Automatic annotation (TrEMBL):
Organism ancestry: Bacteria, Bacillati, Actinomycetota, Actinomycetes, Kitasatosporales
Domain spans labelled Enoyl reductase (ER): 12-354
Name of the protein described by the UniProt record: Zn-dependent alcohol dehydrogenase
CDD domains, alphabetized: Zn_ADH_class_III
Organism: Streptomyces piniterrae
Gene Ontology MF terms: S-(hydroxymethyl)glutathione dehydrogenase [NAD(P)+] activity; zinc ion binding
């Protein structure tokens, strides 16, 4: 079968991948569509260190083809969106409703794929850039059949991460002010999360002025073009929010922008870190600025509870309150992965989405 692998040198599309049958508590899913998140590109450029060879992709939707022993919540033929959380369901973190903190769900990649006799790792317990993948049952969330797979695919990372950061981690309240730095697939979902939460001023900042229209479509009330040589983003935000922002989300993965997010906080404000800079990167801030009850919050995967949250987001989509179709700028057959990656890298798309025959 076809898939996109990374061998440590470059990503390549191959057609001789194999995936093993689902074991007890696992599900085999035929992938229909998968979004290209920046984190996939970060594996390729080394920003996110990951063992190789690996089958990329972690934001997908498809149809259940087979289930292992003990799986009862989905059956062959069901449409599902996939999460990246292979959480155990039995530890204290899972028990208290924090599956993103489950230690069994971090840093233990499996090797369900084979190619020419060699085993390949799965990425983010998911590997949605393959015609078929095997995930833990908890990762397969049943969705209605009438959600187009190209849209449903984006639930599994962009929406869970971005909307979840607003609703679950920051807990943005009605009337709050929000700044979103970086309006890619993650930032756009932070914007629409802020709109859904009832934020008043929602300021988007991006170095690509072409993002303004889509940022406003997703909920931005203001847009700051950070590419202009004379733009001081902190000053520009403070012209709109003179006392600063209640919430500032960094959605790029730059230590300079993390500092910016902290510098534009109002009293009691919180900076939420979603972007992933290179492993080992350090950021700094003026310590005395923090005493005014400010916080810096890390956020993994929108602090999500996927079985609950994906069902909620599907409902909001049906009500027209959560945009999914509008995130899908361009659809590419998996063979055109290189073009999709180039378009994503150059900011020509909100999300590039791959499809599988
Ligand atoms: N915390 C998590 O769980 C989690 C989950 C998914 C993705 N991520 C991370 O989130 C980040 C964003 O992912 P994405 O898929 O949205 O990426 P993307 O490539 O789609 O979007 C990045 C956006 O940032 C903008 N940008 C780049 N440089 C900028 C600058 N100097 N100032 C302002 N804007 C700038 C780009 O124009 C683009 O619009 C990545 O670092 C990714 O690894 C984190
Ligand atoms: Zn992602
Ligand atoms: Zn657990």
């Amino acid at each position: 079968m076809k898939g996109v692998i990374f061998d440590g040198e470059r990503p390549r599309v191959v057609d001789d991948l194999e995936v093993r049958d689902p074991g007890p508590g696992e599900v085999l899913v035929g992938i229909r569509a998968a979004g290209l998140c920046h984190s996939d590109l970060s594996v390729v450029d080394g920003t996110i260190p990951f063992p190789v060879p690996v089958v990329l992709g972690h934001e997908g939707a498809g149809v259940v083809e087979a289930v292992g022993a003990g799986v009862g919540h989905v059956a062959p033929g069901d449409h599902v969106a996939l999460s990246t959380l292979a959480n155990c369901g039995a530890c204290a973190e899972c028990d208290r409703g924090r599956p993103t903190m489950c230690r069994k769900a971090i840093g233990m990649p499996g090797r369900p794929f084979r190619r020419g006799g060699a085993e390949l790792f799965n990425f983010a317990s998911n590997s949605a850039f393959a015609e078929r993948t095997v995930v833990k049952a908890v990762q397969a969330v049943k969705i209605a059949e009438d959600i187009p797979p190209t849209s449903a695919a984006l639930l599994g990372c962009g929406v869970l991460t971005g909307v979840g950061a607003v609703l679950n981690r920051a807990r943005v309240d009605r009337g709050d002010s929000v700044v979103v730095i970086g309006t890619g697939g993650i930032g756009l979902n932070v914007l629409q999360g802020a709109r859904i939460a009832g934020a008043s001023a929602i300021v988007a900042v991006d170095a690509n002025p072409a993002k303004e229209a889509v940022a406003r479509q997703f909920g931005a009330t203001h847009f700051i073009d950070a590419s202009a040589a004379d733009t001081d983003s902190v000053k520009a935000v403070k012209e709109i929010l003179p006392t600063g922002a209640d919430h500032a989300f960094e959605c790029v993965g730059s230590t300079r922008l993390i500092r910016q997010a902290i510098d534009l906080l109002d009293r009691h404000g919180q900076a939420v870190l979603l972007g992933v800079p290179p492993a080992g990167a350090e950021a700094s801030f003026v310590v005395s600025s923090m005493y005014l009850d400010k916080s810096i919050l890390g956020c993994r995967y929108g602090s999500s509870r996927p079985q609950r949250d994906i069902a909620l987001y599907a409902r909001l989509y049906r009500e027209g309150r959560l945009l999914l179709d509008e995130l899908v700028t361009t659809v590419y057959p998996v063979e055109d992965f290189a073009k999709a990656a180039d378009d994503a890298h150059h900011g020509r798309v909100a999300r590039a989405v791959l499809t599988f025959a």
